[in-house]
Amino acid sequence: MDKCVNPIGVFDSGVGGISVLKELVKQMPHENFIYFGDSKHAPYGTKTLSEVKHLTINNVQFLLEHGAKAIAIACNTATSAAASVLRNMYPDIPVVGIEPAIKPAVLYKKDSCIVVMATPMTLKQEKFQILMHRYENMADIIPLPCPGLMEFVERGILDGDELDRYLTKLLGFLNHKKIDSIVLGCTHYPFVKAAIQKAAGNGVMMFNGGEGTAREMKRRLTEAKLLNNQDKEGETSFINSLNTKEELNLCEYLFKS
Ligand code: DGL
Protein backbone atom coordinates (compact mmCIF):
# COMPACT_ATOMS: atom_id res chain seq x y z
CA MET A 1 0.00 0.00 0.00
CA ASP A 2 1.09 3.56 -0.72
CA LYS A 3 2.49 4.91 2.55
CA CYS A 4 1.76 8.53 1.51
CA VAL A 5 -1.90 8.19 2.52
CA ASN A 6 -0.93 7.21 6.07
CA PRO A 7 -1.44 9.87 8.73
CA ILE A 8 1.15 12.13 10.28
CA GLY A 9 1.26 11.29 13.98
CA VAL A 10 1.22 14.32 16.28
CA PHE A 11 1.48 14.19 20.06
CA ASP A 12 1.75 16.29 23.17
CA SER A 13 1.42 15.85 26.92
CA GLY A 14 -2.17 17.00 26.49
CA VAL A 15 -4.23 19.33 24.33
CA GLY A 16 -1.52 22.00 23.75
CA GLY A 17 -0.07 20.36 20.66
CA ILE A 18 -3.32 21.15 18.88
CA SER A 19 -1.82 24.63 18.35
CA VAL A 20 0.89 22.91 16.27
CA LEU A 21 -1.61 20.57 14.59
CA LYS A 22 -3.51 23.62 13.34
CA GLU A 23 -0.34 24.93 11.67
CA LEU A 24 0.36 21.51 10.16
CA VAL A 25 -3.15 21.32 8.69
CA LYS A 26 -2.87 24.89 7.40
CA GLN A 27 0.37 24.14 5.56
CA MET A 28 -0.56 20.59 4.47
CA PRO A 29 -4.37 20.46 4.06
CA HIS A 30 -4.26 17.22 2.05
CA GLU A 31 -2.58 15.21 4.80
CA ASN A 32 -4.36 12.93 7.24
CA PHE A 33 -3.48 13.42 10.91
CA ILE A 34 -3.78 11.42 14.07
CA TYR A 35 -3.41 13.46 17.25
CA PHE A 36 -2.57 11.83 20.56
CA GLY A 37 -2.83 13.86 23.76
CA ASP A 38 -1.43 12.26 26.90
CA SER A 39 -3.59 14.30 29.28
CA LYS A 40 -3.62 11.42 31.75
CA HIS A 41 0.09 11.96 32.45
CA ALA A 42 0.15 15.75 32.10
CA PRO A 43 2.01 17.85 32.98
CA TYR A 44 5.32 16.63 31.58
CA GLY A 45 7.18 19.85 32.35
CA THR A 46 7.51 19.20 36.07
CA LYS A 47 8.41 15.49 35.79
CA THR A 48 11.89 13.95 35.75
CA LEU A 49 13.84 13.60 32.53
CA SER A 50 13.61 9.81 32.53
CA GLU A 51 9.84 9.90 33.10
CA VAL A 52 9.36 12.25 30.13
CA LYS A 53 11.65 10.14 27.92
CA HIS A 54 9.71 7.01 28.81
CA LEU A 55 6.28 8.61 28.19
CA THR A 56 7.47 10.14 24.92
CA ILE A 57 8.77 6.82 23.57
CA ASN A 58 5.44 5.19 24.47
CA ASN A 59 3.52 7.91 22.62
CA VAL A 60 5.59 7.43 19.48
CA GLN A 61 5.21 3.65 19.59
CA PHE A 62 1.46 4.10 19.94
CA LEU A 63 1.31 6.41 16.89
CA LEU A 64 3.46 4.08 14.81
CA GLU A 65 1.17 1.17 15.70
CA HIS A 66 -1.64 3.35 14.31
CA GLY A 67 0.22 3.63 11.01
CA ALA A 68 1.89 7.04 11.36
CA LYS A 69 4.30 7.74 8.47
CA ALA A 70 6.01 10.60 10.32
CA ILE A 71 6.02 12.03 13.84
CA ALA A 72 5.55 15.64 14.97
CA ILE A 73 6.55 16.10 18.60
CA ALA A 74 4.14 18.95 19.31
CA CYS A 75 5.61 19.53 22.75
CA ASN A 76 8.69 21.60 23.60
CA THR A 77 9.25 19.60 26.77
CA ALA A 78 9.20 16.21 25.05
CA THR A 79 11.37 17.56 22.22
CA SER A 80 14.02 18.83 24.59
CA ALA A 81 13.96 15.60 26.61
CA ALA A 82 13.72 12.95 23.92
CA ALA A 83 14.00 14.13 20.29
CA SER A 84 17.53 12.81 19.83
CA VAL A 85 16.66 9.44 21.44
CA LEU A 86 13.70 9.10 19.06
CA ARG A 87 15.76 9.96 16.00
CA ASN A 88 18.24 7.26 16.96
CA MET A 89 15.46 4.74 17.54
CA TYR A 90 13.67 5.49 14.25
CA PRO A 91 16.25 6.64 11.70
CA ASP A 92 13.93 5.90 8.77
CA ILE A 93 10.96 7.91 9.99
CA PRO A 94 10.77 11.70 9.78
CA VAL A 95 10.67 12.94 13.39
CA VAL A 96 10.20 16.69 13.73
CA GLY A 97 10.17 18.52 17.05
CA ILE A 98 9.49 22.03 18.28
CA GLU A 99 11.69 24.51 20.09
CA PRO A 100 11.10 27.98 21.52
CA ALA A 101 11.06 30.51 18.65
CA ILE A 102 13.96 32.64 19.93
CA LYS A 103 15.47 33.24 16.48
CA PRO A 104 12.48 35.12 14.98
CA ALA A 105 12.19 37.14 18.19
CA VAL A 106 15.89 38.11 18.00
CA LEU A 107 15.53 39.04 14.33
CA TYR A 108 12.39 41.08 15.00
CA LYS A 109 14.22 43.81 16.94
CA LYS A 110 17.89 44.53 17.59
CA ASP A 111 19.13 44.31 21.21
CA SER A 112 15.66 43.62 22.51
CA CYS A 113 14.44 42.11 25.76
CA ILE A 114 12.91 38.69 25.11
CA VAL A 115 11.07 36.63 27.71
CA VAL A 116 10.86 32.90 27.02
CA MET A 117 7.84 31.35 28.72
CA ALA A 118 8.15 27.56 28.95
CA THR A 119 7.96 24.62 31.34
CA PRO A 120 10.67 24.22 33.99
CA MET A 121 11.97 21.12 32.16
CA THR A 122 12.32 22.81 28.75
CA LEU A 123 14.33 25.65 30.26
CA LYS A 124 16.56 23.30 32.25
CA GLN A 125 17.57 21.10 29.32
CA GLU A 126 20.89 21.43 27.51
CA LYS A 127 19.05 21.87 24.20
CA PHE A 128 17.54 25.14 25.44
CA GLN A 129 20.79 26.32 27.03
CA ILE A 130 22.59 25.86 23.71
CA LEU A 131 19.81 27.71 21.87
CA MET A 132 19.91 30.59 24.33
CA HIS A 133 23.72 30.91 24.27
CA ARG A 134 23.60 31.10 20.47
CA TYR A 135 21.66 34.37 20.69
CA GLU A 136 22.70 35.83 24.03
CA ASN A 137 24.99 38.44 22.48
CA MET A 138 22.17 39.72 20.30
CA ALA A 139 19.43 40.17 22.91
CA ASP A 140 18.62 40.14 26.60
CA ILE A 141 16.97 36.72 26.91
CA ILE A 142 15.06 35.95 30.12
CA PRO A 143 13.82 32.39 30.68
CA LEU A 144 10.55 32.37 32.65
CA PRO A 145 9.40 28.96 33.94
CA CYS A 146 5.61 28.77 34.10
CA PRO A 147 4.62 25.81 36.27
CA GLY A 148 0.84 25.63 36.44
CA LEU A 149 0.04 27.51 33.23
CA MET A 150 -0.58 24.52 30.97
CA GLU A 151 -3.08 23.22 33.53
CA PHE A 152 -5.42 26.14 32.75
CA VAL A 153 -5.59 25.06 29.11
CA GLU A 154 -6.02 21.40 30.10
CA ARG A 155 -9.04 22.51 32.15
CA GLY A 156 -10.40 24.46 29.20
CA ILE A 157 -9.82 27.81 30.94
CA LEU A 158 -8.60 30.25 28.27
CA ASP A 159 -9.58 33.52 29.98
CA GLY A 160 -11.05 34.90 33.22
CA ASP A 161 -9.99 36.26 36.60
CA GLU A 162 -8.12 33.21 37.89
CA LEU A 163 -5.91 33.12 34.79
CA ASP A 164 -5.40 36.91 34.84
CA ARG A 165 -4.28 36.75 38.47
CA TYR A 166 -1.85 33.90 37.71
CA LEU A 167 -0.31 35.78 34.76
CA THR A 168 -0.05 39.14 36.56
CA LYS A 169 1.82 37.43 39.39
CA LEU A 170 4.04 35.47 36.98
CA LEU A 171 5.03 38.48 34.89
CA GLY A 172 5.47 40.44 38.13
CA PHE A 173 8.67 38.40 38.65
CA LEU A 174 10.18 40.47 35.86
CA ASN A 175 10.05 43.57 38.03
CA HIS A 176 8.57 45.87 35.38
CA LYS A 177 11.42 45.25 32.97
CA LYS A 178 10.60 46.68 29.55
CA ILE A 179 9.76 43.56 27.52
CA ASP A 180 9.85 43.72 23.70
CA SER A 181 8.76 40.16 22.94
CA ILE A 182 7.50 36.98 24.51
CA VAL A 183 8.33 33.58 23.10
CA LEU A 184 5.55 31.09 23.80
CA GLY A 185 7.85 28.13 24.44
CA CYS A 186 5.13 25.63 25.31
CA THR A 187 2.50 24.50 22.85
CA HIS A 188 -0.33 25.08 25.33
CA TYR A 189 0.38 28.82 25.60
CA PRO A 190 -0.91 30.00 22.18
CA PHE A 191 -4.39 29.11 23.47
CA VAL A 192 -4.02 31.71 26.25
CA LYS A 193 -2.17 34.22 24.09
CA ALA A 194 -4.85 36.90 24.51
CA ALA A 195 -4.64 36.66 28.31
CA ILE A 196 -0.81 36.78 28.18
CA GLN A 197 -0.98 39.81 25.87
CA LYS A 198 -3.35 41.52 28.31
CA ALA A 199 -0.99 40.90 31.24
CA ALA A 200 2.16 41.89 29.29
CA GLY A 201 0.74 44.94 27.51
CA ASN A 202 -0.23 45.61 23.93
CA GLY A 203 3.16 46.60 22.55
CA VAL A 204 4.73 43.20 23.30
CA MET A 205 5.22 40.92 20.28
CA MET A 206 4.45 37.20 20.62
CA PHE A 207 6.25 34.34 18.89
CA ASN A 208 5.66 30.61 18.79
CA GLY A 209 7.40 27.72 17.09
CA GLY A 210 4.41 25.94 15.53
CA GLU A 211 4.81 27.48 12.10
CA GLY A 212 8.47 26.48 11.87
CA THR A 213 7.67 22.91 12.91
CA ALA A 214 5.01 22.61 10.20
CA ARG A 215 7.39 24.03 7.59
CA GLU A 216 10.08 21.56 8.59
CA MET A 217 7.62 18.64 8.47
CA LYS A 218 6.58 19.62 4.95
CA ARG A 219 10.21 19.82 3.90
CA ARG A 220 11.02 16.40 5.40
CA LEU A 221 8.00 14.72 3.79
CA THR A 222 8.81 16.25 0.42
CA GLU A 223 12.40 15.04 0.70
CA ALA A 224 11.24 11.51 1.67
CA LYS A 225 8.60 11.54 -1.12
CA LEU A 226 5.95 10.95 1.52
CA LEU A 227 3.61 13.86 0.82
CA ASN A 228 -0.03 12.91 0.33
CA ASN A 229 -1.04 14.02 -3.15
CA GLN A 230 -4.75 13.32 -2.86
CA ASP A 231 -7.11 16.05 -4.16
CA LYS A 232 -9.52 16.03 -1.24
CA GLU A 233 -8.81 17.50 2.15
CA GLY A 234 -7.28 15.18 4.71
CA GLU A 235 -8.91 13.92 7.91
CA THR A 236 -7.87 14.41 11.51
CA SER A 237 -8.68 12.04 14.34
CA PHE A 238 -8.13 12.62 18.06
CA ILE A 239 -7.15 10.14 20.74
CA ASN A 240 -6.60 11.16 24.34
CA SER A 241 -5.23 8.96 27.13
CA LEU A 242 -7.97 10.26 29.47
CA ASN A 243 -10.47 9.18 26.86
CA THR A 244 -13.39 11.08 28.40
CA LYS A 245 -16.08 12.80 26.38
CA GLU A 246 -15.10 16.18 27.94
CA GLU A 247 -11.47 15.78 26.90
CA LEU A 248 -12.34 14.87 23.32
CA ASN A 249 -14.82 17.78 23.17
CA LEU A 250 -12.05 20.10 24.36
CA CYS A 251 -9.77 18.78 21.59
CA GLU A 252 -12.42 19.50 18.94
CA TYR A 253 -13.12 22.93 20.46
CA LEU A 254 -9.43 23.96 20.47
CA PHE A 255 -8.92 22.58 16.98
CA LYS A 256 -11.76 24.71 15.63
CA SER A 257 -10.90 27.83 17.70
N1 DGL B 1 2.82 21.39 25.80
C1 DGL B 1 4.04 21.09 26.40
C2 DGL B 1 5.22 21.88 25.87
O1 DGL B 1 5.17 22.37 24.78
C3 DGL B 1 4.21 20.77 27.82
C4 DGL B 1 3.29 21.03 28.89
C5 DGL B 1 3.56 20.08 30.05
O2 DGL B 1 3.19 18.93 29.91
O3 DGL B 1 4.13 20.51 31.05
O4 DGL B 1 6.22 22.01 26.52
Describe the structure.
- The chain is an alpha/beta fold and 257 residues long.
- The protein has two domains: 3-98 and 210-256, 3-Layer(aba) Sandwich (Rossmann fold), CATH 3.40.50; 102-208, Rossmann fold (3-Layer(aba) Sandwich), CATH 3.40.50.
- It has eleven helices and nine strands.
- The chain has helices spanning 18-27, 49-65, 76-89, 102-108, 120-124, 126-135, 149-154, 161-172, 193-200, 210-223, 245-256; strands at 8-12, 33-37, 70-73, 95-96, 113-118, 140-145, 181-184, 205-208, 236-240.
- The strands form two sheets. A five-stranded parallel β-sheet has the order 4-3-1-2-9, sandwiched between helices.
- α1 (18-27) links the parallel β1 (8-12) and β2.
- α1 (18-27) packs across α10 (210-223) and α2 (49-65) packs across α3 (76-89).
- The longest helix is centred in the N-terminal third of the chain and has 17 residues, at 49-65.
- The radius of gyration is 18 Å and the shape is globular.
- The model has no long low-confidence stretch (mean pLDDT 96).
- The structure holds D-glutamic acid.
